[in-house]
Specification:
Length: 227
């Protein structure tokens, strides 16, 4: 479905519910649109089930933009390119501990598991990056094992340290910078996820695996234990 959102944005909806195949399809569609080198294109914003296209209304109107987008949005084109957009595999080290993950013990108790079970289940899954948002470089990934899924906190923390790894329902993410946040924190990653040079490390469609590391390895890789 293609519909207007505002005077300069178009929303392309590929599905009604989250599906593991969608990040690759959405990344493929975004690639189709970028490759077309449309002179009126301003920005492309991927999300879980949609792709938002921002255009310059001084260069094109809504009807004409849709007519130029529609051939790129056909199921045939999207599926044809999707297999080529397998996504990079990015491995992120994580020091899982109550020292860096203040909610690890709570989550284990809530799920009827041991902390080691939470760590094993969280690091056993290959996640897809579904969307970027909330903060620069903040990648929404899914889906975590349903046995360790947990809702956001009812009262968010005022400050979550950079690198914190969290769970919210069946999503997981790493906070790129210190910021407020309400996800359940289970560890911390020493890898920078955003900088002014390379910008976001992760992109929509990427595959991510978390690797458990020791406290010593975390500190050696530049991790910080500040609260």
């Amino acid at each position: 479905m293609i519909e207007a959102v505002s005077e300069d944005t178009i929303l392309i909806t590929l599905a009604e519910a989250i599906d593991e195949s969608l990040p690759a399809r959405i990344a493929g569609l975004a690639d189709n649109i970028r490759s077309a080198c449309l002179p009126w294109l301003v920005d492309i914003v991927p999300s879980y089930t949609t792709l938002m296209v921002v255009y310059d209304p001084l260069k094109i109107d809504f009807r004409q933009a849709v007519s130029e987008l529609r051939p790129l949005v056909t199921l045939e084109n999207t599926c044809k390119r999707a297999p080529d957009v397998k996504g990079r595999l990015v491995e992120l080290p994580v020091y899982y501990s109550t020292e860096t993950g203040p909610d690890l013990q709570w989550l284990a108790s809530e799920c009827g598991l041991e902390c080691e079970d939470i760590i094993r289940k969280h690091s056993a899954v290959e996640y897809r990056v579904h969307a970027l948002g909330f903060a620069p470089g903040f990648a929404f990934m899914g889906q975590v094992d349903p046995t360790i899924a947990a809702p956001r906190k009812t009262s968010p923390r005022k400050r979550v340290p950079a690198g914190s790894v969290g769970i919210a329902n069946r999503q997981t993410a790493v906070y790129p910078q210190a910021s407020p946040g309400g996800w359940q924190l289970i560890g911390r990653c020493p890898t920078p996820l955003f900088d002014q040079t390379g910008l976001s490390l992760l992109r929509v469609g990427d595959r991510v695996r978390f690797k458990a590391i020791s406290r010593e390895a975390f500190l050696a890789e530049g991790g910080e234990l500040t609260p």
